[in-house]
Amino acid sequence: MADHKHYFAEDSILGLIIISLALDTSTNPATAHGHVFTKCGPMSVPPLRVSADSSCYSAVWHLSEDARGSLAKQAAAMMMLKYFANTPGLVMEEARRNAEGGGWGGLGGVCAFDEMHAADIAGRSERLKGGELGFDLKSSMEWRGYDRVFVDVVIPNENEIEDREGMSLERLY
Fold first, then answer.
1. Strands across the sheet with 41-49, in order?
2. Which tens digits make up the pLDDT trace of 1-55?
3. pLDDT, tens digit, for every residue of 126-147?
4. Does residue 83 form part of some domain?
5. Other beta carbons within 10 Å of 115
6. How many domains does the chain have?
7. Is the bond preceding residue 29 a cis peptide, omega within 30 degrees?
8. CB-based burial, 63-82: b 16+ in 10 Å, e otherwise
C-alpha cells in the first residue's frame, strides 16, 4: 500500500512546486507515482520504479549524499525529471523567459529542466503540512491560464512528524 505525502519547493523558473507523492515500499524495488503542480501546468506521473536501472534515476545521482539517503527525495527527483521530459518545449522556453532573477542557478536558465534541476528541486523540497498551507495553489497555475483548480489533497495534522525516509513517528512530549 502506498503512503501518500505532499512536498513543496520554490524555484526561480517554475515558481511554487507541489509534488504529491505516493511511495509504495512494499514492492521491490519501491515504486512511486503522483502529481506535480507548477506554473508550467499539472502532470500525473505514472508509477516509476525507484531503482538505478530506471530511466529517470539519473536525477538521483545529482542529489546530495544526505538527500540520496531518503527514498522520498529519490522518488521526487525522478518524478521531476519525468515532469521535465513531458513538459512541452515551448512551455519551458516561456517559463525560462519569465524566470525571476534570470533563471535557475543564475545562468539564465541554460541548465534548467535537466537532471541537476530535478535533483535541486527534490533536494530542497519540504514536507507540506496543514498549518503551513499559507500559499495558494491557484496562484501557481495562473501563469498557464488556469482560472480554477480543483484538487483533493489530504494534508496531515501539524503534530505528525516523520523520519528522513518519510515514515511517521510518534511525537514525544
1. 41-49, 31-38, 15-24, 3-11, 126-127
2. 678 888 999 998 998 899 999 999 999 999 999 999 998 988 999 999 999 999 9
3. 998 754 554 555 566 666 676 6
4. yes
5. 21
6. 1
7. yes
8. beeebbebbbbbbbbbbbbb
By DSSP bridging, strand 41-49 and strand 126-127 are unpaired
Instruction: Report the amino acid identity of residue 152.
Output: D
* Nearest alpha carbon to residue 76 among 3, 137, 21: 21
N-terminal to C-terminal alpha carbon distance within the chain = 30
Range of the domain at 98: 3-156
Q: What are phi and psi of 50, to 5 degrees?
A: -85, 85
Whether residue 34 contacts residue 20, with contact meaning beta carbons closer than 8 Å, is answered with yes
SS3 106: helix
Residue 173 lies in a domain: no
- Residue 99 is given by DSSP the state -
**Inside any domain, residue 161:** no
DSSP state letters, 45-71? EEEEE-STTSTTGGGGGGS-HHHHT-H
Q: What is the pTM of this model?
A: 0.75
Contact 123/117 with Cβ under 8 angstroms?
A: no
CA distances 121 to 149, 153, 160, Å, are: 23, 21, 23
User: CA-CA distance, 73 to 117, in Å (whole number)?
Assistant: 13
